[in-house]
Amino acid sequence: MLLRVTNRAANFLSKMPLGGYRRFACALLLAFIALPAISAQEPAQTPPPNSSTPPVARPVPAAGGAFSSTSPPQAPSRAGLNIVVLDPAHGGTDTGARGTGGVRESEIVLEFAVKVRRALELLGFQVVQTRLANENPSFDDRSALANAQTGAVFVTLHISSTGPPGTARVYVNSDLPAEREANGLIPWDRAQAPFLGLSHKLGDLVQGNLAQQFRGSPGDAQTSAVRQLRTTAAPAIAVEISSVSVENRQDLDGMAPGVADAIARGVAAFRPSYVVAGVGGAIR
């Protein structure tokens, strides 16, 4: 078809008088011939990928750069458990437990978090911290950050003021009634209810590793009404190290590598058991 058109155009041009009109017509013909070749070289345009932000359970305010309401950390491409939300407890004016030598829980857990984060990342996990410095996000802020993730577990770090020094315990939230409101939504203060079974399994795995590292630590996770865990819609545990009352601060600091290793190994062992609990996708 193109060949017939160009042949007819060439015959027509040959009969035109020399001059500007003939040169102009020749230029148009050359452009018409070149157009298909140019178009063939241009890459096909594909629609942009869907860039809509995944829904979150609750708005999360920014807190010292630790997290953002508009740009939650993105999960790796592999399905399943990939993210650990690490929560150094307390912060800001809330110093937590204090020892006789001026030891502050809020400061020590930040130092422990550095070691825990490194151990988890070496095993391929993405770590999201609720705070990176001396901020004090609210309980709801911390839970909201965890609830905004896909494929995540939640670990909050504490230093106790009691308990045998050199030991560590894991706590899982006490039983919660898995009730829904009339509209089918799960109340915010019972978000942990569908995940209690998974939390117990994760807690036992981490506690088993802690017991191997620190003699005198229990072999299984314990239950307690931990406020931070109640509003977290993910497998969630609290790890508590004893204690701020040690006479030598170095004894407490020396526990950090063992705690980090136990948590990382426990989370890695939990990975094959991880499933998304059926929460209906809505928390109020």
Q: How would you characterize the overall build of this protein?
A:
It contains eight helices and six strands. It is of the alpha/beta class and 284 residues long. The chain folds into two domains: 2-41; 83-273, Aminopeptidase (3-Layer(aba) Sandwich). It has a six-stranded mixed β-sheet, with helices on both faces.
> How are strands sequenced across the largest beta sheet?
2-1-3-6-4-5
Number of helices: 8
The SS-based structural class is: alpha/beta
Q: Can you tell me the overall shape?
A: globular
Mean pLDDT: 79
Query: What would you report as the Rg, rounded to the nearest angstrom?
Result: 31 Å
Topology:
Layout: H1 2-14, H2 20-41, E1 83-88, H3 105-122, E2 126-129, H4 139-147, E3 152-160, E4 168-173, H5 196-213, E5 222-224, H6 227-230, E6 236-242, H7 249-253, H8 256-270
Parallel strand pairs: 1-2, 1-3, 3-6, 4-5
Antiparallel strand pairs: 4-6
Helix pairs in contact: 1-2, 3-8, 5-8
What distinguishing features does this structure have?
37% helix; 284 residues; Aminopeptidase; six-stranded mixed β-sheet; 6 strands
Task: Write a compact overview of the structure shown.
This protein is 37% helix and 12% strand.
